[in-house]
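Anyone opening a protein record will find just a pair of labelled lines. A complete record is shown below as an example:
=====
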Amino acid sequence: MSTSPVLTKLAWDSCEFGFPVSRITGKVTSQLELHQVLRRARTEGVRLLYWFSSPEAPVTDSLLAEFGGALVARKAVFERSDTAAQYVTASPGEPRLIVREHPVSTASADLQKLSLEAGLESRFRLDPRFPRAIFEQLYYTWINRSTLHEVADAVFIAEAAHAKLVGFVTVAVQSDRAVLGLIAVVEAMRGLGVGGALLRAAHQWASEQGIRTVEVVTQLDNRPACSFYERQGYQRTRVEHVYHFWPQSPYSPIP
């Protein structure tokens, strides 16, 4: 079976962003092969093209320049197993919190606003060619689809005094594992144990579903996040590079 790279159209992304989006699937074995698929994307009118590659597959500066490309993320995948045997433990200095499961309903305005914090280090915010308004709408859609259980199976929120929202995490079952999708804590409460409390809720929920492994993806360059997961007993399992190409030439900004 051929594994030559192909362009896979992404219908949801294209509809959500308002312009044609595709992804390179299949194995890219050389710069020449990558150049050919990028030229195909340009011919077919693709506005934004994703490529998820191994760290050992660099791209030349000339190719990046020709097709408006950039390395926008180094995804680090962390996982932790045996959730039933060992939850994340509370620390004595943690604030008094109420962590509860969000009902199946549309996210509140406060939760939508906090969802943007979950995307501060995302490739969609860090790519200067990706419009800020579309980035924000993407995360509003993501949190709403999560609380409606369209892309998540549970959402936990942390509240401090007077039911003030201070953090949240989304969890989805994928095959034999629970995957944390979005997680965020308000800036004033970071480093005070809110993240640990949210992880405890997610781990306990996963255990109740009979799931032994929890996985989360963050950016390798986001050292505070990586250190946080490592302190909570997670181990990094792999790293993946993500490129964005804007193959239309000359490049014209999207309004």
The mean pLDDT is 91.
